[in-house]
Amino acid sequence: MQLYWFSPLVILILALHRPEEAPPKMKLSDYGFFTGKLSDLAPADNVYAYAVNAPLFTDYAEKARFIYLPSGQKMQYDSVRAFSFPVGAVIIKNFYYYHNAAQPEAGRRILETRLLVRDEKGWKALEYLWNPEQTDALLEVTGGTIPVEWVDKSQKKHRLDYVAPNQNQCKGCHSYDGQFTPLGTTARQLNREANGTNQLVAWANAGALELPAGFDPAQAPRLPNYFDPETPVHAAARAYLDGNCAHCHNPHGPASTSGMFLGVDETNLERLGVGKPPVAAGRGSGDRKFGIVPGKPDQSILLYRMESSDPGIRMPEIGRQMPHAEGIDLLKKWITSM
Ligand code: HEC
Ligand code: HEC
After folding, report:
1. Is this model's pTM higher than 0.90 or not?
2. Cα radius of gyration rounded to whole Å, the chain
3. Which pLDDT does position 71 carry in this prediction?
4. What are phi and psi of 119, to 5 degrees?
5. Residue 150 phi, psi dihedral angles, 5° rounding
6. Residue 19 has pLDDT above 60, yes or no
């Protein structure tokens, strides 16, 4: 008979043991976020569809975003930082390609669903990959590479080994002073019209968001649509940089040491890159001398890195493989106009 099981040390360890947090669900369908056929992504009760003003480019993937709030719970508004969420909230981001972007009704293929789950300790990232039958998505901490094909709006055919990031890479973007944070759930991203009503006001009316007394969307921060031809080039370029770069390039983000801060509120031109020598010269800078050279996009490191697909040079360094041609055009116009 082995008596050591009853040793005082074991008893102490058992006494100090706290139950582990619930393990993540293995299948997306286990959460019950959607009703009917899962791939229709039709939101269940307490699940709110939303869109952002200045989305992140991810190799031309389309995105469908949702927020789940536990019954009776609300988000809290903040004018600058990400809104606060109640424990139990989940933000859901689905990535897909239309088979043919000119004919969305011809169907789509969903590749991944990323979750940010708010628990007692903070935010937790989870990654689910869809099966080829499109009946469910399974938890996959290591991410994956998925060959995809699609036809874009101009009828050009594309093939790509799409990369779904692994769970460790999420924090490479979703980080504020080293703490995991949501990125797009800010006033400037969410203050927009949806189905004829302001998205924030609609949530407040549905009891999902606490707004300050007398809230007026016209006075609240709002990023413009960066590809709307009506948006002046300067405002469009700043919105593009805010949505695609500033989550890393800010004093609290993963690229804080670059000294290049690309948030829409940055007013210091050198911190934006104008006349700023790179922290590391050489290959990553293409031997160009400054982040931005006014009037000269072809001498600006910023464009060099946006145009590159080389993992050691390209910006963003993770989350895309293809250069974003339309984004590059916009930034070229902006730097040319300086
Ligand atoms: C290249 C940077 C980058 C990486 C890597 C990344 N994200 Fe994000 N993510 C963003 C940005 C920027 C937004 C907000 C803009 C948007 O929704 O288009 C966002 C939005 C989200 C959202 C919607 C809530 C929010 O934060 O606005 C979820 C959920 C999410 N990401 C989960 C994940 C998970 C899980 C991973 C890892 C598997 C991951 N992300 C990896 C940049 C990134
Ligand atoms: C996932 C985080 C991340 C994202 C997103 C990101 N960057 Fe960076 N960037 C970095 C890091 C880290 C460095 C510093 C190391 C280096 O130069 O590679 C950097 C450096 C740079 C530099 C050199 C800065 C200098 O002065 O040394 C430029 C230019 C740049 N990024 C442009 C961009 C642009 C433009 C975008 C958006 C289109 C972007 N980055 C998005 C992480 C990121």
Report:
1. yes
2. 22
3. 96
4. -115, -170
5. -155, 165
6. no
**Per-residue pLDDT reduced to its tens digit, 179-208:** 999 999 999 999 999 989 999 999 999 999
Which SS3 state, helix, strand or coil, does residue 9 take?
A: helix
Residue with CA at minimum distance from ligand 2 atom 14: 258
CA distance 123 to 175: 10
Nearest residue CA, atom 26 of ligand 1? 182
The encoded tokens of residue 117 equal 């789950």
Best residue among 169, 248, 276 to mutate for probing ligand 2, ranked by most atoms within 8 Å of CB:
248
Q: Rounded CA gap, 51 and 303, in Å?
A: 27
Q: Cβ–Cβ contacts within 10 Å for residue 218, how many? A: 7
Is the four-CA dihedral 202, 205, 208, 211 of positive or negative sign? positive
pLDDT at position 306, please? 98
What percentage of the chain has pLDDT greater than the value 70? Answer: 94
> What number of H helices and E strands is found in the chain?
7, 16
Cα–Cα distance, 139 to 279 (Å, whole number): 38
Q: Is 25 helix (H, G, I), strand (E, B) or coil?
A: coil
The protein residue whose alpha carbon is closest to atom 5 in ligand 1 is 170
Contacts of 81 (CB under 8 A, 6+ apart): 176, 186
DSSP notation for 147-185: EEEEE-TTS-EEEEEEEEPPTTTGGGTSEETTEE--SS-
Phi-psi region of 226 (alpha: psi -120 to 50; beta: other; left: phi over 0): alpha
